[in-house]
Amino acid sequence: MSETIAIRNIANPDGRALISDHGAHLIEWTPAGNAPVVWMPRAVYLGRDAAIRGGVPVIFPWFGPGYAHGQAAGLKPKHGVTRLAAWHFDETGSTDRLARFTLSDADVDESVLRVWADHYDIDTAAGLPKFEATFEAQVGSTLTMRLTVRNTGDAAWRFEAALHAYLHVGDVAQARLLGLHGAHYLDAVHGFEPREQADEAVTYPGPIDRVYESSGALRLEDPVLGRAIEITREGSPQTVTWNPGEKDGNAIGDMSEGEWRNFVCVESAVCREHEVTLAPGESYTLGETLAVAVL
């Protein structure tokens, strides 16, 4: 570990969450009487010099390599800057059921703001993009996460965002994601080929990386753990679901062999063609609520 990072313990009789100041990254949510719902690698690296694998990365102002002029933009760092930034924990605004973190453009390296402006055609006559971001997690028998971003500058700007949740399953090969039947999606495993979800459930027999046009409720069924994770969203016109499969999963440096079997990413997103434009003073909220039901 390069440098110790602060981890906040939000606990009450209904559930517990652990959230790092580094990235405002939720690394655990366990409702009372249940197995952990959010997945983390056993040997996860927790240092200020790298993004955290697993949990719920907070992604802004671009998703993946970014998207500009109808194609991937090849931007770095991947998934923008918020998951690498030192957020501020709001001691007075947080309780044993609510964690609140804040971040602004003043906390971000100017070079990253310039990359954002250059590739998203932001007018910099009045300066680089200015923003305030708030991440809140309401913790109990359910978990509600909200990322709110506000334009505090004098020029409009465009952005992408996501709550990149890694959900714990007993065996990915037996997991089923319901709620996407008939939805159109881009298949990133096959060159972002456009397709339609023909089957009732999304299953994970091999590598899966898809961006669905869907804002509805979802249900991740897990017969091994005997439960379903129910997912509702706010401000999310898209659903991203990902699992690397055996070959790529075993090659990921901070995951042990075989750990790829124990998670499915189900992400609330606003990305690519659905990027959002905020005028000065405007704000946008992206939210996700997780609940557990007996299967």
From TrEMBL:
The active site is at residues 164, 267. Pfam families: Aldose_epim. The keyword Isomerase applies. GO terms for molecular function: carbohydrate binding; glucose-6-phosphate 1-epimerase activity. Its EC number is 5.1.3.15. It comes from the Bacteria. It catalyses: alpha-D-glucose 6-phosphate = beta-D-glucose 6-phosphate. PANTHER family: APOSPORY-ASSOCIATED PROTEIN C-RELATED, GLUCOSE-6-PHOSPHATE 1-EPIMERASE. Belongs to the glucose-6-phosphate 1-epimerase family. This is Putative glucose-6-phosphate 1-epimerase.
